[in-house]
Design a protein that fits this description.
Elements lengths: L7 H8 L4 H4 L4 H9 L5 H11 L3 H17 L3 H14 L5 H15 L2 H14 L4 H14 L3 H8 L11 H14 L3 H14 L4 H14 L7 E8 L2 H13 L6 E5 L6 E9 L2 H15 L4 E4 L2
Antiparallel strand pairs: 1-3, 1-4, 2-3
């Protein structure tokens, strides 16, 4: 399976941040162009400004917007070329943003060597984009069929503070370590993912992996209960929410009959109380519920 490339929405959010020098540079001609030109006509108009403007900041902003437009359309070859031209025009402090975006475009093209060259440069020169760039480098190694190098790239980040991309970094660390049969490292990455990013999409997958390692169906001694309801619909709703959050064995167990029936939502059965408490703590963070560890029945 092809490795995941940095998510488009995430990438575009970063690209929307104009460098500080460009944000200060007003250009009535460029602003009017962006406000009054249809998207299909924008590339040619932006290239004209890039080629003819005598204002260095205006020309740099025009080519950067052009590059973002190509990227948003999935035109990665044109985007990579335009981001390269933007990097050449920008002040040194602003170049890393364009080089980072160029690296993403090379990933989109399936060109891991060129992507890695751009992203390694950014990782070593930009504190603000360091984590994002190393994640991109790791994805370039995966794209090249070298998962062991991807793991080497991300391992130093496991013990450092992580920002918005931390959930994705930890998810890839867990998957790569598991693939290399380094189970302790995979477990540490996933446990930190659950602790630091409990409501992320990546955390749901991590819970499933940890649950599969911890649970022993049929031989468990304790269970984790996260709710008891008279209304069976409410019980089923909570169980479904738990499954979506990464607890694949969540289920409703009905005790009693008729008006006396109680519908219990159980995360699963565990062989050790410590494993049950760990699952319950994860449910507290992910679902906002309380839990009880009870004897399995």
């Amino acid at each position: 399976m092809a490795p995941r490339i940095v998510r488009l929405a995430f990438a575009l959010a970063l690209l929307a941040i104009q460098p500080a020098t460009l944000a200060r540079a007003a250009s009535s001609r460029l602003d009017a162009l962006l406000a009054g030109t249809q998207s299909d006509s924008l590339p040619a108009a932006l290239r004209r400004i890039e080629a003819t403007s005598r204002d260095q900041a205006e020309g740099a902003r025009a080519v950067l917007v052009l590059a973002e437009l190509h990227y948003a359309r999935g035109e990665f070859h044109d985007a990579a070329a335009a981001f390269g031209r933007a990097a050449a025009r920008l002040a040194p402090a602003d170049k890393p943003l364009a080089r980072y975006a160029q690296g993403l475009a090379f990933l989109g093209l399936g060109e891991p060597t060129q992507a890695r060259a751009a992203l390694e440069e950014v990782a070593r020169t930009s504190a603000a984009l360091r984590e994002d760039a190393w994640l991109g480098v790791a994805q370039a190694w995966e794209l090249a069929g070298r998962p062991e190098r991807a793991l080497e790239t991300l391992e130093p980040l496991l013990g450092t503070p992580l920002g918005e991309t931390g959930a994705t970094i930890l998810e890839r660390l867990g998957a790569l370590a598991e693939r290399a049969d380094r189970q302790d490292e995979a477990r540490r990455a996933r446990e930190r993912l659950l602790r630091d990013y409990p409501r992320s999409i990546e955390a749901a997958s991590a819970r499933g992996h940890l649950a599969a390692a911890a649970q022993r169906p049929g031989v468990g001694t304790v269970a984790v209960v996260i709710g008891q309801f008279i209304d069976p619909a409410r019980a089923r709703s909570l169980a479904s929410e738990a499954k979506r959050a990464g607890f694949p064995d969540a289920q409703v167990v009905t005790r009693g009959q008729g008006l006396a029936a109680i519908h219990v939502v159980r995360l699963g059965i565990y062989s050790k109380p410590a494993e049950a408490r760990s699952a319950g703590d994860q449910a507290v963070r992910a679902l906002g519920v309380s839990y009880q560890v009870v004897k399995a029945e």
